[in-house]
Amino acid sequence: MNDEATSVVRVGVVGAGAMGAAHVQTLTRWVGGARVSAVHDADPERTAQVAQLAGARAAASAEQLVGADDVDAVLVAAPDPLHEELVLACLAGGLPVLCEKPLATGTEGSRRVVDAELAGGRRLVQVGFMRRFDPAYVELRALVRSGALGDVRAAHCVHRNAQAHPDATSEGVLVNSMIHELDVVPWLLDDPLAAVTVHAARVPAGALRDVQVAVLETVAGAVVTVEVSVNARYGYDIHTEVVGTAGTASLTPPYGLGVRRAGLSGRVVGGDFVARFADAYREELAAWVQGIREDRPVGPSAWDGHRANLAASAAVESLHGAGRVEVPHEPTPPLYA
Questions:
Q1: Which GO MF terms are attached to this record (predicted)?
Q2: DSSP sequence for 242-285
C-alpha cells in the first residue's frame, strides 16, 4: 500500500453498471479512509462517466486495473461469469477484493477461489452478502442468538424483485437471487443448511420459472420457506420472520413512506435493492475498508461464498426434478474458522 494509503485505501472498481456505480458513489460520499482511484467497465462510455463522478481514472482493462500501482484493493461488480477470474487475479497479486455475489458461477469455481486463498495463507476475499450488514438483520440475529425466542423451529423468507433482468434464467432465480437467503439463513440462525427442496410455479413451456419456493432444512432441524420472485412488478420487497418456541420476530419495513390517498393507506414500496439496502451497503463497504487498513478480515469470506454455492447447486438440482437434495458438508478450513 502506498504512503498515502496508510490512511487512504485506493480502490479500483471493475464493473460500472447499476451495482458498481452505486458502490462508487457510496465509497466516494460515505466511506472514510477510501478513495476510488480507477474504474473499468466493458462499456467505455460508462467507464468514463462513472470514473468522472468519482474523480478517478478510466482503466483500459480489468487486467490493467488489477495490476496498477494506484490500486490497493479491488471491488468486483462485473457480470457473474467474470467473478472467478477477477478474484483469482486479485489473489495472485496479493490484493484485497470485495466480490459481489456469487463468488463464482458454480461450486468448482468457488472451490478454486478458496484453494487459491488457502495457498496464500491469508484472507483477502470478502463476498458481497450485504444483508449481514443491514441494521434490521443484525438486530434480528442478535435477538435469535440471545435465546429470547426460545428454540428456533421455522423461518419464512420472501424475496421479490420488481422486474427480471433480460438475461434472467430459471436457474438464476436460485443462483443469483435466492443465494442471498442461502447465505443469510444459516448466518441468522447460526445453523448450517442440511437439505433443500425447490418447487416452481407452473408456467408455459420455455418460460422463466418464476415464482420459486424452496423448503430449507437446517442441521438442527428447523424448517425454512423461501419464496423468490423476480417479476413481482409492484416493487422490491424483502421479508423475514423467525419462529421459536417462545415467540416470533420479523423484520419491519425500515425504509419508505406511509401514504394515504385515493382510498388506500399503506407503505410505498421501493423499486430496487440499492434503496432498500442503502445502509447495509454503507456498513459493508466501511467494514471492508477498515478491515484492509487494520489488516483484519471481516465480513462474509470466500468460504461463505463457497458454502452458498453448494446450497445453490443443490437447489438447482432439486429444481430439475431431484426432489429433496442434501447440501454437501465440507469441513471448514482453519483459515476460516
A1: nucleotide binding
A2: EEETTEEEE----S--EEEETTEEEEPPPSSHHHHTHHHHHHHH
